[in-house]
Amino acid sequence: xxxxxxxxxxIKMRERVLLIVAVFVLLFIGIDRAVITPFFTSINExxxxxxxxxxxxxxxxxFIANKKQYETRLNDLERYYTEYQxxxxxxxxxxxxxxxxxxxxxxxxxxxxxxxxxxxALKKEIINKKPYLIVLSINFEISNLDSSLKLQNFxxxxxxxxxxxxxxxxxxxxxxxxxVVKGATISxxxxxxxxxxxxx
Length: 200
Description:
The chain is α+β, with helices and mostly antiparallel strands. It is 55% helix and 25% strand. The protein has helices at residues 3-10, 13-65, 67-85, 94-111, 148-159, and strands spanning 89-91, 116-121, 125-129, 132-145, 166-174, 184-196. The N and C termini lie far apart (85 Å). The mean pLDDT is 82.
């Protein structure tokens, strides 16, 4: 340790000054990396965290201030859902719901003096998982139509059905020759929303 001061004084004055400056620069860089930079980084992170918490508190206070409005809106939505839930097909399985939809189309056709000649269940579409709601679709065909009034009443009964929510899509009427109604074939897709207890 005693040799260091001797070596230090043997070096030229200019080199001593450069050595002292280099030691101070290294010391400053070390202090900067070990203390100053982490300190300012910590301050910035704390500011960002506080700003985020401030925004969350504003949202929270806004929610509390509008709590009554949100509760009223939620109650309205629950009442609306309950009203419509009664119009959904409600069955234990998807297969039973599909069979129920086929029964509905057959009953509506029979009520209006028509006969469903063919019906095929299509792929379901899941619209909600809890409660489990799906859209069921059935392609159906009615052959040998003999009256436009029967067709009109049949379509009216589907669109304005008070018991279940039914939708008609892709209605096609094929006629034979010049006669617009007699012997025509109707094909379409009937859709309904079903509430299912057990997923298949």
